[in-house]
């Protein structure tokens, strides 16, 4: 395996570092885009076709159960993988954890996707990754999950590796993953390590470990897919679990559970299960308490450990100064740097840390570490950086931290150092600076172990809280599930369902209420069955009666047809009679009118005033008789003529009629108003006669009013238009309103207002022929209002 890793490292060593950095940034932004798509509930294949779409997840029991299952599997495999080192200096067996992430996202879908970043981070914390690294790498955990999401898009609906098509999509995913994920971690790690180490050591190690993952993944999926399907956890088989639609459509074009035989659409659970509502707050509360307690405790311990380390450095420095004074006071050792180095090497601090002396020019005088020690070199470099004016201006007592990074094996260690100006007892060597350095892992090892153990406690607390909450939830949900099953049985027709009692008071009350309801339903059903039988018998009787009624209706229709024919014949005879009468009456009337006119013109001088009065009355009566005959014929024609229905502009007709009346009597002062846009469906000729009669009446009965006001408007009644003709004329007494629409009925004397009494009778017949109604309202001296509908 070392050979494989070295070959990968050699390949990356041949690539220029600037090109690797561009590749890493490109991989990071591509991964960031995938993260937005994955966690934003987008899909790249809505309905199985390439394109951008949206996906909706149903948060049912299976979805919620997938979250803790994914969490536990990642923590467990991460912990087991930490015991195996594939290549010294590379990584532990991360392939096992990546393999679980791949399987969970492909089989469980979105619930596993949102769980992976948090479970992966907690797993790394258990394995010893510093908390600060987790914060810096936080985007990487989400991008890492999004890279696995690509496999969910490509093979998620049917990840069966017995199909050649699955292998093709899988190889495409592996190539895309290897092109993005390892180099983006090189980009993210460059802040903790150098770009050289990140791209030439971290990235090759990740390619190797993920390569192992992709070799094992198909074999594991051949076992995991049938198991997930058997347990009902494979997302694509659960009816209604996931829905997809193209981005610009509102219609869902695909729903999980359709593609596999036996999985009916929409049969999955819908809504949020009650036990999940009970579980979630309990789990969150427990985790918050455990996490907050661990955080406060570890932070307090870290502060105390740092203060202790500072005090320890001070004590170590004073001890070294005393022993160095004693060494330098011996004859012949003033310039013996080897003896000083031996002295420093014998100190207890040299076992885990470093102690060395530099001069003000930055040169190393003596060191506890043999040879060219990189830690000492790094410390001197940081010390020079902290003193811009050189070591000559270094404060007498200066404490600082520096980071030591080693590529082989890969490590990153923070050191706490203290630099103190030195001067021997005789005042010599005042250009020396004594430096002591200790790694943080030495005095913070307990804190680092505490971080790992706190993460383990956090994971265990999650599992325990899940177990306890599940037990508590089952106490509540078990009776509800029994009620649900009994309700479904009731719906299927089993009315003998009864529920047992419950130790929970509310559940027991609910069970008793259900039992009472079931008993009432059974009694009502029995009564309903009896009533149904009675109704069947009544229906049989009713059918017999309907048969008889049909026979009666047929006979009645025959009689109606006979009566209709007789009525038509009678109407024809009546029409003939009316024309005959009118013709027979008009001839003598014309004779009377002619002779009367001759008397009035030629013999008026021979007649006295009384005779002339009689003659005038004869002429008036003759004219009135002619008018009555004409109106009677009009009334007969209105009732007899065939109707031609069409949309009629009533406003235009009313304006025309009123204009004619105004032009016939221009001396009259009148305020006329016709509402615009009034129209109705009917016979144009009859509707004109209707408006002519109504408006002529209004004009006639306002003749004695100084300023006549006549209006034609419309309101709404029962959703239909109600037309109104209103005037301020003479009006009438409402006690005689029932005589208003009768032929030849008058409510005013002829000397007041002339007329035959046929006009309103004609109006009523026209309204009746149009299926409408007409009514009148009036008050003597205050006008009349006629309202009609068509």
How does this structure look, described?
The protein has 790 residues and is α+β, with helices and mostly antiparallel strands. It contains 19 helices and 16 strands. It has helices at 2-13, 17-39, 61-81, 94-108, 110-126, 131-136, 138-155, 164-189, 195-231, 274-328, 337-346, 374-386, 440-443, 445-491, 505-602, 609-640, 650-664, 684-701, 759-769; strands at 42-43, 53-57, 242-246, 254-255, 354-359, 364-367, 397-406, 411-422, 432-439, 646-649, 670-674, 679-682, 708-717, 720-727, 774-779, 783-788.
Question: Keyphrases for this structure?
Answer:
61% helix; elongated; alpha+beta; single chain; 790 residues
Condensed summary:
By secondary structure, this protein is of the alpha+beta class. Helix content is 61%, strand content 12%.
- Category from helices, strands and their pairing: alpha+beta
What shape does the CA trace take? elongated
In the sheet with the most strands, the strands line up as: 6-5-9-8-7
Low-confidence stretches: 260-270
For the sheet with most strands, the description reads:
5 strands, antiparallel
Instruction: Report the end-to-end length measured between terminal Cα atoms.
Output: 99 Å
How would you state the average pLDDT, rounded?
Answer: 81
Oligomer: single chain
Count the E strands: 16
Give the helix proportion (percent range). Answer: 55-70%
Gyration radius (Cα, Å) is: 54 Å
- How many helical elements? 19
**Into which percentage range does the β-strand content fall?**
5-15%
What topology does this entry show?
Layout: H1 2-13, H2 17-39, E1 42-43, E2 53-57, H3 61-81, H4 94-108, H5 110-126, H6 131-136, H7 138-155, H8 164-189, H9 195-231, E3 242-246, E4 254-255, H10 274-328, H11 337-346, E5 354-359, E6 364-367, H12 374-386, E7 397-406, E8 411-422, E9 432-439, H13 440-443, H14 445-491, H15 505-602, H16 609-640, E10 646-649, H17 650-664, E11 670-674, E12 679-682, H18 684-701, E13 708-717, E14 720-727, H19 759-769, E15 774-779, E16 783-788
Parallel strand pairs: 11-13
Antiparallel strand pairs: 1-2, 2-3, 3-4, 5-6, 5-9, 7-8, 8-9, 10-12, 13-14, 14-16, 15-16
Helix pairs in contact: 1-9, 2-7, 2-8, 3-4, 3-5, 4-5, 4-7, 4-9, 5-7, 5-14, 7-8, 8-9, 10-11, 10-14, 14-15, 15-16, 16-19, 17-18, 18-19
């Amino acid at each position: 395996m070392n050979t494989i890793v070295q070959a990968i490292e050699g390949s990356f060593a041949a690539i220029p570092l600037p090109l690797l950095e561009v590749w890493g940034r490109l991989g990071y932004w591509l991964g960031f885009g995938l993260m937005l798509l994955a966690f934003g509930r987008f899909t790249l294949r809505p309905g199985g076709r390439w394109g951008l779409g949206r996906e909706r997840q149903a948060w049912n029991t299976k979805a919620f159960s997938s979250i803790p299952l994914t969490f536990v599997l990642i923590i467990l495999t991460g912990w087991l993988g930490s015991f195996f080192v594939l290549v010294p200096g590379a990584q532990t067996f991360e392939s096992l954890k990546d393999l679980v992430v791949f399987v969970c996202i492909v089989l469980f879908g979105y619930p596993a996707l949102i769980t992976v970043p948090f479970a992966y981070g907690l797993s790394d914390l258990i394995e010893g990754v510093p908390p600060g690294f987790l914060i810096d790498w936080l985007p990487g955990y989400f991008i890492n999950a999004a890279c696995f999401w690509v496999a969910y898009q490509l093979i998620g609906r049917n990840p069966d590796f017995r199909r050649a098509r699955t292998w093709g999509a899988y190889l495409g995913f592996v190539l895309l993953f290897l092109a993005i994920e390892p180099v983006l971690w090189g980009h993210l790690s460059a802040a903790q390590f150098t770009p050289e180490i990140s791209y030439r050591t971290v990235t090759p190690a990740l390619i190797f470990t993920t390569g192992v993952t992709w070799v094992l993944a198909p074999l594991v999926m051949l076992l995991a897919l049938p198991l997930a399907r058997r347990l009902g956890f494979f997302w694509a088989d659960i009816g209604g679990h996931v829905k997809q639609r193209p981005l610009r459509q509102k219609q869902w074009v695909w729903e999980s559970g359709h593609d596999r035989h036996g999985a009916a659409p929409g049969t999955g659970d819908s809504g949020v299960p009650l036990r999940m509502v009970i579980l979630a707050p309990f789990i969150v509360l427990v985790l918050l308490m455990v996490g907050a307690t661990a955080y406060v405790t570890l932070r307090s311990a870290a502060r105390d450990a740092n203060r202790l380390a500072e005090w320890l450095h001070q004590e170590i420095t004073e001890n070294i100064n005393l022993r160095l004074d004693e060494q330098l006071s011996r004859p012949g050792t003033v310039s013996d740097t080897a003896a000083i180095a031996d002295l420093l090497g014998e100190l207890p601090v040299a076992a885990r840390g470093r102690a060395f002396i530099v001069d003000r020019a930055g040169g190393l005088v003596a060191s506890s570490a043999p040879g060219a020690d990189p830690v000492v070199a790094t410390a001197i470099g940081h010390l020079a950086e902290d003193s811009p004016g050189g070591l000559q201006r270094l404060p007498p007592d200066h404490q600082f931290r520096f980071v030591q990074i080693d590529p082989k094996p890969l490590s990153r260690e923070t050191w706490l150092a203290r630099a103190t100006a030195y001067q021997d007892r005789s005042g010599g060597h005042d250009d020396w600076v004594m430096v002591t350095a200790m790694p943080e892992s030495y005095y913070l090892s307990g804190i680092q172990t505490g971080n790992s153990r706190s993460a383990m406690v956090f994971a265990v607390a999650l599992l325990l809280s899940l177990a306890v909450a599940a037990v508590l939830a089952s106490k509540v949900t078990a009776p509800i599930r029994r009620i649900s099953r009994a309700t479904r049985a009731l719906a299927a027709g089993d009315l003998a369902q009864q529920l047992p009692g419950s130790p929970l008071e509310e559940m027991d009350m609910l069970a008793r209420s259900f039992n009472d309801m079931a008993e009432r339903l059974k009694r009502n059903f029995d009564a309903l069955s009896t009533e149904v039988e009675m109704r069947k018998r009544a229906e049989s009787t009713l059918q017999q009666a309907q048969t008889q009624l049909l026979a009666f209706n047929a006979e009645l229709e025959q009689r109606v047809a006979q009566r209709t024919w007789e009525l038509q014949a009678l109407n024809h005879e009546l029409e003939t009679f009316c024309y005959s009468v009118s013709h027979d009456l008009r001839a003598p009337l014309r004779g009377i009118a002619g002779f009367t006119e001759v008397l009035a013109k030629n013999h008026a001088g021979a007649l006295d005033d009384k005779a002339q009065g009689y003659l005038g009355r004869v002429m008036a009566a003759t004219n009135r008789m002619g008018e009555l005959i004409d109106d009677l014929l009009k009334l007969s024609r209105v009732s007899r003529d065939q109707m031609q229905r069409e949309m009629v502009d009533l406003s235009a007709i009313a304006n025309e009629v009123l204009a004619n009346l105004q032009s016939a009597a221009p001396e009259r002062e009148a305020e006329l108003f016709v509402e615009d846009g009034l129209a109705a469906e009917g016979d144009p000729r009859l509707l004109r006669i209707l408006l002519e009669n109504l408006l002529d009446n209004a004009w006639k009965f306002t003749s004695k009013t100084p300023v006549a006001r006549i209006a034609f408007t419309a309101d709404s009644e029962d959703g239909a238009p109600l037309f109104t003709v209103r005037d301020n004329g003479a009006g009438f007494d409402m006690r005689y309103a029932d005589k208003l629409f009768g032929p030849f009925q008058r409510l005013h004397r002829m000397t007041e207002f002339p007329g035959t009494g046929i006009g309103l009778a004609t109006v009523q017949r026209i309204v009746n022929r149009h299926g409408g109604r007409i009514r009148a309202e009036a008050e003597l001296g205050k006008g009349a209002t006629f309202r009609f509908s068509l």
